[in-house]
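agent> fetching stored inputs for the flavin-adenine dinucleotide docking request
agent> found them:
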Amino acid sequence: MSDAVVIGAGPNGLVAANLLADAGWEVHVLEAEPDPGGAVRSAELTLPGYVHDRFSAFYPLGVASPHLRALRLDQHGLRWRRSPLAVAHPAGDGSTAVLSLDEAETAASLEAFAPGDGAAWHRFMEHFDRVGFPFIRALLAPFPPVRAGAALVRALGGPGLLDFARFGMLPVRRFAEEEFKGAGAARLLAGNALHADVAPETPGSALFGWVLLGLGQRLGWPVPEGGSGELTAALVRRLEARGGRVTCGARVGRVIVRGGRAVGVCTADGREVDARRAVLADTGAPQLYLDLLPREHVPDRVLGGLRRFQYDNATVKVDWALDGPIPWTSPETRRAGTVHIAEDMDRLTLETANLAAGLIPEHPFLIVGQYAPVDPTRAPAGGETAWGYTHVPQEVRGDAGPDGLRGDWADRAEVERFADRMEAQIEPLAPGFRASIKARHVTSPRDLEAHNANLVGGSVNGGTAQIHQQLVFRPTPGLGRPETPIRGLFLASASAHPGGGVHGACGANAARAALAWQRARRVSVAVAGGAVARGAYRGWVGR
Ligand SMILES: Cc1cc2nc3c(=O)[nH]c(=O)nc-3n(C[C@H](O)[C@H](O)[C@H](O)COP(=O)(O)OP(=O)(O)OC[C@H]3O[C@@H](n4cnc5c(N)ncnc54)[C@H](O)[C@@H]3O)c2cc1C
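agent> prediction call returned; pasting tokens
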């Protein structure tokens, strides 16, 4: 019997398992898929020698996360690689805004759009340097972040607190207007903010852009050498070196609850796996409460909250094997690991409005990754491995584009037609791109969920990142911590605070909660045992 069973070997599950193993626990991770990693896996999806990241690809949050850093994965084979430009955002008029690892180059890029924006960029970074890392530490700590929160308050200073509270609510469009004059900064800010499921007008969206840009400036947007699966491989190696086990192809069908406490799990094929101390679920919150737990153990309040649980947008991803680097017209764009494609802030507003209205975007906003500038091990010599993804509505009501797509992602012809539309966004900025494609692999929202049950309907972040489902509201109001109403059961996935992204914080917070619960249990058993012993002694003496 293990001390803990972890359901799911995504990055959060594996970080949790590592921390429990560090504390001397015997840990068994059960993973439904044939390979560990969840949304952090790579494979040769197209042609031999072309290594594709099946889901996530670049990890600024990972290198910034104190939880992942503390695991020292470099000692377990992980090597980070960085491109000279983290992001480029080219447009049809030939202009390109860039986020370079060299702050002066970023500033010069923005200055070219509007005099004064270079200096504004340096001011942006001064603010980030003072507040950004304390903010990220507070965000990734369990809620409420007492110590990390105090450090953030100290970094902000008294009057800074109110300003920061206001900034935290700003839509990215307004923030760009307040701090910059040119379209370049607006493009960079909005493109980064829209890694979360927000619109440029969504309150709080400026914060997403600020974090990703600040991290990109200071740490780059690193990728694991050899593929995202190498990050997972390092997590698994570290765990196994501490006696932990990962069993793949083992889908958990039920959490076993006895006496109000989680005591193990039952796999879908009927095997029982006991847990002496705790069960940690790296599954979506709705799956945990609605599918894995017997109904009688889920309080009505939780069920009520889950009825309002909101997934983030669905996703379509295309992986390409190319016969050479993408022929971008803009030379800067060739040096970037990641490329954002949307004409400008207004286009992002229009397409997010389409998503909100249930319409498939006409000019989908693409996030594109390419490896020639960052990790040439991903493709045979001279070739290039690249990907692009975009969002579509969870519930499609129509097509804002000309193809009359119905959003029936079971229909491969529809999926391929939408992939053509995505490629058509790239071609004008890189004439000859389509001709350079040797093979492509298209992943629809259904495919995403088929390869990882947490990616419901093709959502990527375990639930919306908008403010109404963050902090104390994540996954539902009142469940803002990893503890669940069932003793010994902890939610460890991106459905928990602080949400999506490969930072391992949800797993680390769940592991620490499990360890704290065990400590408290031992103390209460000792106190109760002491009371019994004292009673027995008194009884004996009295005789
Ligand atoms: C297309 C895409 C692109 C992304 N890009 C980035 C990026 O570039 N950078 C970034 O930081 N983040 C990115 N993300 C988000 C990031 O990958 C996720 O937020 C992160 O992987 C969440 O980790 P997790 O451990 O909570 O869940 P997951 O990674 O989803 O792992 C959950 C695991 O649990 C398993 N599981 C579920 N149910 C069961 C069950 N009943 N029994 C056994 N096993 C089960 C699943 O099979 C899966 O392996 C991306 C996500 C997607 C989908």
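agent> quick read of the result: The two ends are 43 Å apart (CA to CA).
agent> awaiting further instructions
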